[in-house]
């Protein structure tokens, strides 16, 4: 990185991750069984994990941009997480849904699962890297082909 | 006098939430708080799945991964933080060293002892984790986010894209889990 970062940038990211991971452990979302019990309608508690987290971020995303101009550690303005909608959101979401429903684990919860001692989750993490690589390889190749076609045309 | 409602409501709550709601709600608030701490300090809406691609940029030159080079170091730190935070939970509440009325220990999986602390192992079969993991890796990256990026930060931002994304993966995941259960695959 050329850009000089605030010395507290990395420590703050770590502290945020610690709280995030502790919450995933405490809520039992780091346990695939608990996610599967939710998806199989045996325990709806997981709604409170996602709902509780979204309520907290919603309050922050609504208030922080009005109260402060720029983030102290980056100098960036406060934005919201808005991404453009296209077909990929549906296709990717559906593929993710099949994987989540089969395994009971998503990326953040998988990292936390490792933290609670679940070494078996390395299977899921290995799978996630394989999956991310497959789509990244494919999309990189496709982008390269497209730009070649454009420059040739 | 006990009315029917007084009998019905606890019974319904017991069947919908057999482990109560407090551990879920408290855990969820902490997940949100972790995301907010990062947002307050840096303006970044952190998601967990970009780490998969940004970390691949260390070993692959593919353009899709190289675009994340500038954020790959802090994403590693974020992930190490998540692992560390869950480990702190394991050493405290999971091990029973610290307890609270808000925390309900579970019956899922298996606890094992390491140096006097309780660690936890899943019973879910490795093939499910691996195959599911591959689909999670493909889907979250094509779909522009996962449970934390779309589900926590995106929904918290009121993003319609994220709300549609969450509804999509929730419905498909419920359908998949129901089919897997109906086929008798367990755990």
TrEMBL record, chain A:
Keywords assigned: Membrane, Transmembrane, Transmembrane helix
Keyword Transmembrane annotated: yes
Top-level division of the source organism's lineage: Archaea
Transmembrane region(s): 7-26, 46-68, 89-114, 120-138
Family matches, as Pfam families: DUF6691
InterPro entries tied to this protein: DUF6691, MFS_trans_sf
Protein name (database record): Uncharacterized protein
Species assigned in the record: Natrialba hulunbeirensis JCM 10989
From TrEMBL, chain B:
Entry membrane topology: Multi-pass membrane protein
Transmembrane segments: 24-52, 73-92, 127-143, 163-185
Predominant subcellular localization, coarse grouping: membrane
Organism: Natrialba hulunbeirensis JCM 10989
CC annotations in GO: plasma membrane
InterPro entries hit by this protein: Sulf_transp_TsuA/YedE (IPR007272)
Coiled coil: none
Highest taxon, organism lineage: Archaea
Listed name of the protein: Uncharacterized protein
Pfam families: Sulf_transp
Subcellular localization(s) per the UniProt record: Cell inner membrane
Alphabetical keyword list: Cell inner membrane, Cell membrane, Membrane, Transmembrane, Transmembrane helix, Transport
């Amino acid at each position: 990185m050329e850009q000089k970062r605030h010395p507290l940038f990395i420590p703050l990211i770590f502290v945020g991750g610690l709280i995030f991971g502790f919450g995933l452990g405490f809520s039992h979302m780091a346990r695939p069984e608990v996610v599967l019990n939710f998806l199989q309608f045996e325990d709806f508690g997981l709604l409170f994990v996602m709902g509780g987290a979204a309520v907290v971020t919603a309050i922050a995303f609504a208030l922080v941009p009005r109260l402060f101009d720029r983030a102290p550690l980056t100098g960036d303005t406060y934005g919201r997480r808005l991404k453009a909608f296209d077909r990929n959101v549906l296709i990717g979401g559906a593929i993710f849904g099949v994987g989540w429903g089969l395994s009971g684990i998503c990326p953040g919860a998988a990292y936390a699962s490792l933290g609670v001692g679940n070494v078996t989750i390395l299977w899921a993490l290995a799978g996630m890297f394989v999956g991310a690589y497959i789509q990244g390889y494919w999309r990189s190749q496709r982008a390269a082909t497209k730009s070649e076609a454009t420059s040739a045309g | 006098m006990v009315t029917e409602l007084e009998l019905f409501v606890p019974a319904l709550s017991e069947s919908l939430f057999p482990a109560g709601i407090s551990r879920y709600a408290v855990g969820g608030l902490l997940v949100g708080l972790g995301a907010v701490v990062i947002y307050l300090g840096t303006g970044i809406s952190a998601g967990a799945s970009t780490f998969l691609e940004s970390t691949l940029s260390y070993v692959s030159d593919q353009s899709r991964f190289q675009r994340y080079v500038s954020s790959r170091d802090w994403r590693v730190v974020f992930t190490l933080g998540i692992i560390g935070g869950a480990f702190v939970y394991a050493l405290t509440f999971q091990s029973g060293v610290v307890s609270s009325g808000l925390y309900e220990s579970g019956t899922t999986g298996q606890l094992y002892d390491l140096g006097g602390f309780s660690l936890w192992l899943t019973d879910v079969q490795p093939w499910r984790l691996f195959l599911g993991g591959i689909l999670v890796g493909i889907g979250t990256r094509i779909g522009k986010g996962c449970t934390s990026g779309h589900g926590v930060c995106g929904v918290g931002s009121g993003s319609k894209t994220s709300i549609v994304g969450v509804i999509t993966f929730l419905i498909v995941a419920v359908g998949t889990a129901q089919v897997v259960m109906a086929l008798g695959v367990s755990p």
